[in-house]
From TrEMBL:
<feature type="transmembrane region" description="Helical">
    <location>
        <begin position="180"/>
        <end position="198"/>
    </location>
</feature>
<feature type="transmembrane region" description="Helical">
    <location>
        <begin position="251"/>
        <end position="269"/>
    </location>
</feature>
<feature type="transmembrane region" description="Helical">
    <location>
        <begin position="210"/>
        <end position="231"/>
    </location>
</feature>
<comment type="similarity">
    <text>Belongs to the 4-toluene sulfonate uptake permease (TSUP) (TC 2.A.102) family.</text>
</comment>
<dbReference type="InterPro" id="IPR002781">
    <property type="entry name" value="TM_pro_TauE-like"/>
</dbReference>
<feature type="transmembrane region" description="Helical">
    <location>
        <begin position="12"/>
        <end position="38"/>
    </location>
</feature>
<keyword id="KW-0472">Membrane</keyword>
<dbReference type="Pfam" id="PF01925">
    <property type="entry name" value="TauE"/>
</dbReference>
<feature type="transmembrane region" description="Helical">
    <location>
        <begin position="121"/>
        <end position="141"/>
    </location>
</feature>
<keyword id="KW-0812">Transmembrane</keyword>
<keyword id="KW-1003">Cell membrane</keyword>
<dbReference type="GO" id="GO:0005886">
    <property type="term" value="C:plasma membrane"/>
</dbReference>
<dbReference type="InterPro" id="IPR051598">
    <property type="entry name" value="TSUP/Inactive_protease-like"/>
</dbReference>
<protein>
    <recommendedName>
        <fullName>Probable membrane transporter protein</fullName>
    </recommendedName>
</protein>
<feature type="transmembrane region" description="Helical">
    <location>
        <begin position="281"/>
        <end position="303"/>
    </location>
</feature>
<keyword id="KW-1133">Transmembrane helix</keyword>
Length: 304
């Protein structure tokens, strides 16, 4: 009675509800979809095939992200103008990412590692998750050594150069407190959208640091605006994966039972934390994801 079949695998559904609660909390707290943890967890801990994990994650993140975006919008944390540009680029990129996933699923074979046959798709996805999470975590850790105060905004050399980019048209974003060429956020979102469709993530764990460190958006606005664009990015990706039969509605349902509650708790806490502390907590969560991926890779390479 406590197990359900998902993607041909028997899964303990109360654990899915608990996982959904955690992911929802992260969605509200950081303005991220939580897919950077959810997808690996479903694959590594529950054995759900990657295509099903990716497609189902996107549907769950779309629902949870919608609640998070609405909550942040009511608090005035969403830069709608910037969010629309990000959403346009992310939605386009999401369809491209889905096509890449389809090709990998059809063409990727198996690898023999340490005498074991491992699906190439699993190895590629784990390495991609590891590289991205490590890059984001390192950028936040480096900020810790460069800044002395607790501030809501990080002004990097790269963000200064982007703001000076004289590529018309140029736009101002009042809520975010910055201005730059129209093509800067669109280009950033296109790349994030591709990762959304490929990896089953809302792109928030990449978008959040990009908004803060690359575009120079304040931390609070980055959380709210990131949640806003996630709705569009995951919506497009979810439809694409649903058409491919990669969505398990029972899996989505169990995750949503926990995540709807978690997201409301996360939004409330996000307004009680200073920007610098919020970013450091985000790096800590990424570290947990990195450890999970390393554990999986160790098993695939025969270390454990």
């Amino acid at each position: 009675m406590l197990e359900v079949t998902i993607g041909g695998v028997q899964v303990f559904w109360p654990a899915l509800v608990g996982l959904g609660l955690l992911i929802g909390f992260l969605t509200g707290l950081f303005g991220v979809g939580g897919g950077f943890l959810l997808t690996p967890c479903l694959r590594i801990l529950f054995g759900v095939p990657y295509p099903v994990a990716v497609g189902s994650d996107l549907v769950q993140i779309f629902c949870t992200g919608s609640v998070s975006a609405f909550k942040h919008w009511r608090r005035g944390d969403v830069d709608v103008k910037l969010g629309v540009l990000l959403a346009a680029g992310a939605a386009t990129g999401s369809f491209l990412g889905k096509e890449i996933m389809s090709v990998l699923q059809q063409e990727a074979g198996s690898l023999r590692i340490a005498g074991r046959s491992q699906p190439m798709l699993d190895v590629v996805m784990n390495l991609l998750f590891l590289a991205l999470m490590a890059a984001v975590a390192v950028s936040i850790i480096r900020e810790k050594t460069q800044e002395g105060g607790d501030t809501d905004r990080v002004d990097t050399v790269f963000s200064q150069r982007l703001r000076k980019l004289a590529l018309p048209p140029r736009m101002s974003f009042e809520t975010s407190g910055t201005s730059f060429s129209l093509w800067v956020p669109v280009g950033v979102a296109l790349v994030v959208g591709m990762l959304t469709g490929l990896m089953g993530v809302g792109g928030g764990f990449i978008m959040f640091p990009l908004l803060v460190y690359v575009l120079g958006v304040s931390t609070v606005a980055a959380v709210g605006t990131g949640a806003f664009q996630i709705v569009f990015a995951t919506g497009a990706g979810a439809m694409a994966h649903f058409s491919e039969g990669h969505v398990s509605l029972p899996l989505v349902g169990f995750l949503l039972v926990g995540s709807i509650t978690g997201v409301q708790l996360g939004v409330r806490l996000s307004h009680r934390l200073a920007g610098r502390r919020l970013r450091r907590y985000f790096a800590g969560v990424l570290s947990l994801g990195i450890l999970l991926i390393l554990y999986s890779l160790a098993g695939q390479f025969g270390v454990i």
